[in-house]
Amino acid sequence: MKLVNNDLKDKWILDSGATNHMTGNPGLLDGTTCLVPSISVYLGNNKKLMATRIGSFKSPKISIPVLVFPGLNVNLISCAQLCADLQCWIILNGTGGYIYDKGGNKLCSLQTLGNLFILELGLQSKSRRLVTIFSKGNINIWHRRLGHASVETLRKLGFHGDLDDCHICPQGKLKHSNFAKRTSYAQQLLERVHSDVMGLFIEGYWGENTVSFSSTRCQERLLSRH
Fold this sequence. Notes:
Blueprint: H1 2-7, E1 13-15, E2 22-23, E3 32-42, E4 48-58, E5 63-68, E6 76-78, H2 79-86, E7 89-92, E8 96-100, E9 106-113, E10 116-120, H3 126-135, H4 139-145, H5 151-156, H6 168-172, E11 198-203, E12 209-214, E13 219-224
Parallel strand pairs: 1-6, 2-5
Antiparallel strand pairs: 3-4, 4-5, 7-8, 8-9, 9-10, 11-12, 12-13
């Protein structure tokens, strides 16, 4: 069982004695939902496990429902349920085997490891697939794609190497942009005056509010009714 726990964590074992497809790792499934009522099974050591969720395992040619049993250390494919779900044929020999649909098309191959038959699906867990995809890319490209993620975050995703100097990262830490530098300066008093161009509200002769706009070049009065 140590071999199974350490080396077959993300692999699926064909089991002629299992009543259902089952796993203890919901990360291998494409979405899970609560299972009501729960289903109980007994292992070979008479230990009882309860299935709390159900999900879907999908490969390019296989899609099957799988029960999630917390505490289960292996991923099992039930021969009986597989034949019932897919109406398939399972052919085994001393070196491996094949699974064919009722039309004679090969769904997947099987390889042997010790006395176990392992499904060759070419798939990995979601988290491992994500790390594999990221690790094949350039660290600087994924730094930008992930919203300028920190070096620590990129290391956790499996990237190696050093980041190039990024001029956007320091800008993102600023509270506001720098003011533009002045190109001209006043040479004498009142040469440049900064003021509010809107004047006071003045009560008009006929009860209207007169809004006065003033500037150094023009003065206008606009009448607006209530």
